Amino acid sequence: MLEVQEIHVAYGQVNVLYGISLSVKSGEILCLLGRNGAGKTTIMKSIMGLLPLTSGTITLNGTAISTLPAHEIPRMRIGYVPQGRRLFPELTVSENIEVGLMTCQEDKATRDWVLEIFPRLRERLTQVAGTLSGGEQQMLATARALCLRPQVLLLDEPTEGLQPSVIEQIRQVIVRMKQEGVVVLLVEQRVDAILSIADQVSFIENGRNVETTDAASLRDDPDKLKRYLGV
Amino acid sequence: MDFGPHFLIASLEGAITAAILALTAMGLSIVFGVMRVVNVAHGEFYMLGAVIAWWVAHLIGIHPALGFVAALLLAPLLVGVLAAAADKLILQKIGYDPDRTIVGTIGLLYIIQQSTLMTFGPDARPVQPPFNTRLSIPWFEFGDNGFEIIWPWGLGTTSYKLFVIFAAIVILTGLWAVMTRTKIGLIMRATQQDNEMARAFGVPVERVYAWVFGLGAALAAAGAVLVVPIQQAHYLMGGDPLLLSFIVVIIGGLGSLPGTVIAAIFIGMSDGIISVFFSPTLAKIIATLVVAMVLVFRPQGLLGKANP
Ligand SMILES: Nc1ncnc2c1ncn2[C@@H]1O[C@H](COP(=O)(O)OP(=O)(O)O)[C@@H](O)[C@H]1O
Ligand SMILES: [Mg+2]
Fold first, then answer.
1. Residue ranges per domain, chain B?
2. CATH homologous superfamily, domain A1-76+183-231
3. Directed axis angle between helix B257-277 and helix B280-297, to 10°?
4. Closest residue of chain A to B192, computed from CA coordinates
5. B243 phi, psi to nearest 5 deg
6. How far apart are CA B224 and CA B79, in angstroms?
7. Integer Cα distance of A22 and A35 in angstroms
8. ∠ at Cα B141 (B140, B144), nearest 5°?
9. The model's pTM
10. Which of residues 211-270 of B touch A (CB under 8 A)?
11. pLDDT tens across A89-116, in order?
12. Tell me, what's the ipTM?
């Protein structure tokens, strides 16, 4: 179980998060919804230890991870698919995967496993990541995170600007990870795409989470979406 | 001597300058590429390499070759450790802020230079080459008897000078192999391209930076150990290599390792040739002009990317 408790985060002097709390059990998908600039990406980066917390704690299965050095957090098997993919653009597909494998010292079996999930990548192993199509880049970013054999998967707008066929493929991977008991934290703009797979939805507004509800209740009460997102 | 043989000698001198410069500039280029740090103290690491080489060769006075080999191993190692410590104590503490790293490394430059003056003294001191056989070089001419091989007086080099070129090629090839074929190299390249994502995938970025800063300094020191049997060790010898390394890194393209090698060969060769035929000052003036032209017409350098 991943628990974020009352975290406050600032970029330098500028406060961005004001007491965010979240809690996701394994095998559960929590989706963060909110307008641009609400602080969703900042929450993801804070969990990864890429930004210092001003206060609050983050724990994984009861162990505090927010006190660890940033490079040890992914080694707790927390896989990160960042917004905008953020591949290592001049490394090949194979090398990008290798970086993912090194994080938790995973071996060839894991490499085969992720290449089975994304067979397209196997055809592109020697290609430089920056020259892949948008869909392939997203597959690689996801594959790189799966290389950690994650128990937590953070996905920040993984379907941004993708074709429906790729979106579907990413969606299936997310559902599969959920079934395998992974904690999934998902940021997504396209509400329709996630209401069907999310277990909980948390609305983020100006660095605060204003409400967390069951996805099921949202499906019955679309007015709520209008209120928070203006959709 | 005729123009032909004279030019050959000048080219050989140029090749030696190019070899040393390629090592030194590569150190600067790696540090800039991976860490985005402009290391103004780079020339002082070069100087320290030469000075430590003198100490080591002096202490192991049994045989020049033994002293030299020990220096070639120990000087880059010691300089690398010192640089890694400087990274941890200075650059890490100021968070690699671009402006402050320049000021910080300028401070480091003076600390190293003055400490060397206080301990090593103001004298230039030579190191014995491990071997130094004179090698004559043949030339050809079309004289009265047609094509002839001749051995012009003064056309020659030494086995040590050829060794310098060979050693530089070996070290650079080794570096290339490490960067492209090993996990350490992969980690360095990933960190160079996106240090935040490297960290998100378990790379201890601070430790990588300390290693890279040490490696950059060790490359400069290796160049200096190779040069010190030809030029003497002196506490002010770091100035020229720093200037030339900056020129090379700018021409080659900031952070591009192949660009650095190509530019080092170009600048080293022309520096050697112009120095022999005209004067070393003219060589520096021309190199600086070339930099100005590159900055005007191709600001990203020969092999640099337009918008990194
Ligand atoms: N590197 C940064 N430095 C300063 N402020 C930032 C930085 N990145 C994001 N912010 C600010 O933090 C707020 C939250 O941004 P972000 O977490 O990216 O929002 P979201 O992902 O929900 O669109 C925004 O107001 C943004 O301007
Ligand atoms: Mg965002």
1. 3-131+158-236
2. P-loop containing nucleotide triphosphate hydrolases (3.40.50.300)
3. 140
4. A88
5. -60, -50
6. 11
7. 18
8. 140
9. 0.93
10. none
11. 999 999 999 999 999 999 999 999 999 9
12. 0.95
